[in-house]
Known about the structure:
The structure holds two protein chains of two kinds. Chain A is an all-alpha fold. Chain A is built from four helices and no strands. Chain A has two domains: about 1-50; about 65-105. Chain A starts with a helix and ends with a helix. The relative contact order of chain B is 0.16. By secondary structure, chain B is α/β, with parallel strands linked by helices. Chain B is globular. In chain B, about 45% of the residues lie in helices and about 20% in strands. Chain B is built from nine helices and seven strands, in the order E-H-E-H-E-H-E-H-E-H-E-H-H-E-H-H. Chain B has one domain (about 5-229): Spore Coat Polysaccharide Biosynthesis Protein SpsA, Chain A, CATH 3.90.550. In chain B, helix 5 packs parallel to helix 7 (about 175-185). The termini of chain B are far apart. The interface between A and B is medium-sized, with 13 and 18 residues.
Amino acid sequence: MLPSQIFLTVIICFIIIKTLMAFKKEKIIDKTFYFFWLGFWLVVLVLVNFTQILSYLAQLLGIGRGVDFAVYVSIIFIFNLLFVFFQKIKKIEKEITKIIREIALKE
Amino acid sequence: MITKNKVFIIIPAYNEEKVVGSVIDSIKKEGWRNIIVVDDGSNDGTLEIAKKHKVIALRHIINLGQGASLQTGFEYFLRKTKGELVVTFDADGQFDPKEIKRAVNFLLKNKLDVVLGSRFLGKAVNLPLAKKIILKLGIFFTRVFSGVRLTDTHNGFRVLTRKALEKIKLNQNGMAHASEIIHQIISNDFRFDEFPVTVYYDRYHKIKGQKLTNSFRIVFDLIFDRIFK
């Protein structure tokens, strides 16, 4: 095990424990999100410790290094998340406008 | 012929306590009785002053932006009145209320659905250079987005018929509504024309007017809306 793997494993375990604790305290209301979050970090934990999986996937796609593959996937993932958030914010903004307008018209 | 009681003047106002009263008075002096002030969550006495001046005063409990205020005014007009025409008018006293009648007559005479005020066909008194650059940028972007050549796109002075308002729906809460309204006029095939109006700039407007950074925001809002609609 490389020092970086130990380091990452500790951090990921910490995140997983935090998530479990938050769920126990019912801080997480959305169950789907909770399972997704937990699953995501478990997958990352596996990938960190079995790097050959990433290397295999990377070679399959002709990317070369496993780490590069991980970075590319993360960036795509994050951008997509950004898009989803933008849309959500816009939707919430529209709903707030509607509420404020109805209040203004009712008074 | 449309009588004055079929015309509603909509004034979106945000923190305009210093001027909104005199603007209302000056409009009333011209014989217009139906005035709707939409207070956009001001934290000064704008709403109280509007109420004191006996106009229809609507209030957004939080600040949403000028586009949202106009849309609220439009919806009040459509739902609660039997009016025929709407005139949108700025609360900061930069327009001349005498021109309302002329603009309304211009619409009626030419059987238009919408009249858009233009300070570049009319007069822009003491127009600061920075403001001019912003406005010209607005005109440029409207040309790019809507493919229409107008001389003034971000002018708050407009006359609209009920028929037009039944179709127009402003989704842009902020200042980008000005370009949006033009886009909707075009896509609905409304008959429209520009009308020369006078816009007065004094120190008050120079303080309160649009900042240069706002014009970038407007462009961002427009692009965003086009992509994510």
